[in-house]
C-alpha cells in the first residue's frame, strides 16, 4: 500500500513506520522533522495548515514517482499520529488547537483525495484516569471501549473531540475510519531502563491503568487495521495482554481497585486495559511482553 503517515518521526510513529516498511508498504512520513530511516520518504508540513495538508495529500512521495509519467499516484490509506503528545508541553489551549484542527485537516483532506481508509491515534487518556487531578479510578474493570470518556485535561479533551470528528466524517463519507486508544507506548530499550522501578512500586503505573503497549505491537495493530476493511467507524483499545507490574491481577484489585465493579473474570496477569475488541475484529495478537526482557523477581 502507498501510505501517508503523519507524525512518523515521534516515539510511537517511528516504530509503526518501521513495521509497515518491513511488510512492503511505501510510507510518506509527514512531520515537522524528518525520520532518518532507510526506505521512508519524508515531507515537512504543519498539520494545522489546511493548505499544506491538502498539498501533501496530492503529492509525489519521492523522485522515482516522476518516472512513469502518469501523474501523482493516490494514497491507499492515511495513518494520522501527529499531535502534541501530552499535556504540559505547550499551553493547554495550544495543545487542544493543534490536535483538533490538525486531525480535522488530515481526515478532511484524505477523504477529499479519495482515500477510503483512515487510522488515527486516540489515547488511553480519554478515559479520564491518566491526567486526572488526584486519583481517579475506572468506573469498572477491565476498561473496554464502552467505558465513559470524560477527561479533565486539554490533551485528552482533544482526543475525545477527534473521535467525534472522525465519527462524523465517517458517517458522511462511508469510509473506514478507525481510532486507536493507544496505551503507554514502551520501546524495547525501556524495559531494562524503566521497568525495574515499576516492579519495585506498582503505584507508579496507576495512571496508565497498569497497562502498556510495546511499540512493535503497535505497529502490528496499525497493519491489522490496514488489512481489515468494512468496519466503518470503530474505536480500539491498544495494549499488550499483561499488565506492567509484578503483582497479580487479583493483588492489584485488592490494593488499588477495591469496590470497583468487575465486568469479567480475569487471568493471573491479565491487563485491565482490555484489548479483546481488537483481537476479535482485527485479529490483533500481541507478540511482546516485558517478561521476555526482565525478570519479575
UniProtKB/TrEMBL annotation:
Domain NAD-dependent epimerase/dehydratase: 3-206
Superkingdom to which the source organism belongs: Bacteria
CDD domains in UniProt: SDR_e
SUPFAM superfamilies cross-referenced by the UniProt entry: NAD(P)-binding Rossmann-fold domains
Protein known as: Nucleoside-diphosphate-sugar epimerase
Species whose genome carries this gene: Maritalea porphyrae
